[in-house]
Design brief:
The chain is of the alpha/beta class. It is built from eight helices and ten strands. A hairpin with a 2-residue loop joins strand 7 and strand 8. The longest helix is centred in the first third of the chain and has 21 residues.
Length: 196
Amino acid sequence: MKPSGRNTFMYNLLAGTQRMQQFMAALLMLTLLSTPATGTADEAQRTEYRIKTAFLYNFSRFVSWPEAVLQGSSEFSLCTLGSTPFEEQLDTLTGKTVHGKTLVVKRFDRPEDTLDCQLVFIGQSDEPGEALWILKERPVLTVSDAAAFTEKGGMIQFRVIDNKIRFRINVDTARAAGLTISSKLLSLATSVTGTR
């Protein structure tokens, strides 16, 4: 029986609705945003990799792809292009569910091999220009920690500000590729390029 009065708020708060799950994911992201990269250099690096991994997973949940892209496959492909120092952490995402699909992590060295991926992380050591040209206006979410990534046509760029992992979003590039970025995700970005 649904409670009334003052207990209604708590009942609604604890109800396992999809909106509540999404809200809790947003709270998780806010918690991660406030986690400083402190301690020894190795600890700070491990923390950074865990945070970036969590962000990539949540990016995949808070972005919508065209229905045709996700049809016909039981997998959601999160791909890395080039050298990625946190591949071990990314492997922990394998088997999770995203948009009703099983998440798989794939690694590639050539941009043309990533055309069937839903999300591609381009390592900082790699020049993203060729990959962005090949993936331009394709329904592939591009993410990197390379400098000026969103200015070059990337969609989401990791940045470290005051020892915290942040991100910026180029919403126009995502929209041109047929992707819709949740307003919750946009609200967590340090900057958003383009029209919301």
